[in-house]
Amino acid sequence: MKIYTKTGDAGETGLFGGPRVRKSDARVEAYGEVDELNACLGTVRAVVEDPEIDAQLARIQDELFCVGAELATPHGEKARSAIPAVEPRWAERLEAAIDAWEAELPPLRQFVLPGGTRTAAQLHLARCVCRRAERRVVALAAEAEVSPVALAYLNRLSDLLFVAARVANHRARKPETAWDPHRER
Fold this sequence. Notes:
Layout: E1 12-14, E2 20-22, H1 26-47, H2 51-72, H3 88-104, E3 112-113, H4 118-141, H5 148-171, E4 177-178
Antiparallel strand pairs: 1-2, 3-4
InterPro entries: CblAdoTrfase-like, CblAdoTrfase-like_sf, PduO-typ
Subcellular location: Cytoplasm
Pfam family, one: Cob_adeno_trans
């Protein structure tokens, strides 16, 4: 099977089990952002040394493929039965991980600047990409039916990525840099 089909050369792509649409379509934008997020998590996994964080990210990458498939398949299409559904328990699992990780962290009393270890910096970047993906899915939801479970998952995932960045710094004994709004600039 060839990787190129030439069917997108005129600026259109086919939705899973659905019609052809412009590559600038809101649905394509939404699942494209989820794909970029997944790639960001791959870059984190290339540098992460913490096996617990890596295992969590590996599972999330797999789940993000399901989120992307959900977004790439218009509701009502027969193809919907061929893709795994995004499940509420996934967001609940993220919440449990957030709670467990926060228990080992000092309380957050102020904003922190993104950075620290290489892993933490990459996690902060992934968090930003996740928020952008979430915004694209919200925009899509304004014009088409979108799984509220997928949207909740992305929202919870950005929280997890923030906490994971803090954990990566904490476990590496790398202090976080607090944002000082009164610092002389």
